[in-house]
Amino acid sequence: MVVLSQPAFDHVSLIEAYKPTTLFNGIPVVDLSDPSAKTLIVKACEEFGFFKVVNHGVPLEFLNTLEAQALKFFNMSQSQKDMAGPPDPFGYGNKRIGPNGDVGWIEYLLLNTNPEIISHKSIFILQENRENFRCAVNNYIKAVKNMTLQVLELMADGLGIEQRSVFSKMLKDERSDCCFRVNYYPPCPELQALNGENLIGFGEHTDPQIISVLRSNDTSGLQICLKDGTWVSVAPDQNSFFINVGDSLQVLTNGRFRSVKHRVLAGPKKSRLSMIYFGGPALSEKIAPIPSLLAEGQKSLYKEFTWCEYKMSAYKSRLADNRLSLFEKD
Ligand SMILES: C=C1C[C@]23C[C@@]1(O)CC[C@H]2[C@@]12CC[C@H](O)[C@@](C)(C(=O)O1)[C@H]2[C@@H]3C(=O)O
Ligand SMILES: O=C(O)CCC(=O)C(=O)O
Ligand SMILES: [Fe+2]
Q1: How far apart are alpha carbons 8 and 192 in whole angstroms?
Q2: Domain boundaries in the chain?
Q3: Distance 223 CA to ligand 2 centre (A)
Q4: Centroid of ligand 2 to alpha carbon of 314 (angstroms)
Q5: Nearest residue CA, atom 2 of ligand 2?
Q6: How far apart are CA 290 and CA 19, in angstroms?
Q7: What are phi and psi of 180, to 5 degrees?
Q8: Most exposed residue of 9, 15, 75, 104, measured as fewest CB within 10 angstroms of its CB?
């Protein structure tokens, strides 16, 4: 074992000796132009709460432009970036995730997707480049949101729900509570000396919203937890999107879809850059199973709550907590 003394390695709390994970080649791939997409989506949400989307229709130019703009941001000096933080929860964050003491080997920008709030102070510190950045974020979010609405409609269709817009209308609502996150995991060269140990970039958690749509650069690091509790690595694919079922969708489907536990490990050589669109409903939206998904006599597994109540409770929790357990019926 190599023992590194302080200050050579002062991020000890982020080091974890996880069991080695294998690259999983069973991640479902859904081609949005394929007529069987709706069936595949439902199967993937039941089995994994996670799938990859190809033929998504989002111009690759939007992905690459935003990546370049985000790198410009993260390559600025630390003092400049600090002017855009600390997150409240929006803005620039460095190592601290959320308000309750969680940390990771990460820098990020968290933005509200409401177009007026995209003019958050974090964008203003970009000075002469802010219009380019704002435009790249807006183009990306608009296109990704459209694709997400399509996926949600296929989901409803695949579940046999008469009202195809049952999920998508929650995001279409002008009061919907969606946010956007750009995560940057810098390389950590000292990691090479720590044989077999892992550096936590973003600790294990489920996403509280309905759906999360992730795109990353070509650097690995994302892992998901399978039904049997095994953690597996997801091969990066910079031209595709990865969809996560969030806690709220698990409730809307009365547990038929599962919100996927996931985490990110940082690497020694390459930086990872990911962009995640989190689709949440209006604060007043009631989160309860869609009635037609309940078989006769079947009851909801969850107590009634609104997205506002769930979100407030989530923000009091630690990242790895099972946030839904507070809302499960006894
Ligand atoms: C530790 C926390 C960070 C988080 C809010 C929370 O209290 C628990 C949920 C976390 C999470 C996970 C998914 C998204 O990245 C996020 C923005 C969200 O909505 O819930 C984060 C929150 C955050 O980073 O503020
Ligand atoms: O950065 C990633 O790849 C995933 C991060 C994540 O899960 C999140 O921001 O909620
Ligand atoms: Fe997440």
Answers
A1: 13
A2: 11-327
A3: 10
A4: 16
A5: 274
A6: 38
A7: -135, 135
A8: 75
pTM of the model: 0.95
The CA distance from 306 to 326, in Å, is 13
Measuring CA to CA, which residue among 108, 81, 314 is closest to residue 201?
108
Give the distance from CA 319 to its chain's centroid. Answer: 13
ipTM score of the complex? 0.99
Between the CA of 207 and the centroid of ligand 2 the distance, in Å, is 9
Judge whether 188 and 268 are in contact, CB under 8 Å: yes
State the Cα–Cα distance between residues 224 and 262, nearest whole angstrom: 4
Ligand 1 mutation pick, 90, 94, 97, 324, max ligand atoms within 8 A of CB: 97
Counting from 1 in the atom list of ligand 1, the atom nearest the Cα of 276 is 15
User: Does the beta carbon of 210 lie inside 6 Å of ligand 1?
Assistant: no
Q: Which fold has domain 11-327?
A: Jelly Rolls (2.60.120)
CB 181 within 8 A of CB 93: no
Gap between the Cα atoms of 272 and 51, Å rounded: 20
Ligand 2 atom closest to the Cα of residue 222 is 3
Of 255, 315, 310, the residue nearest 110 (C-alpha): 315
Distance CA 172, CA 119 (A): 21
pLDDT tens profile 123-149:
666 666 788 888 899 999 999 999 999
CB 252 within 8 A of CB 289: yes
Using a 6 Å cutoff on CB, does residue 315 contact ligand 1?
yes
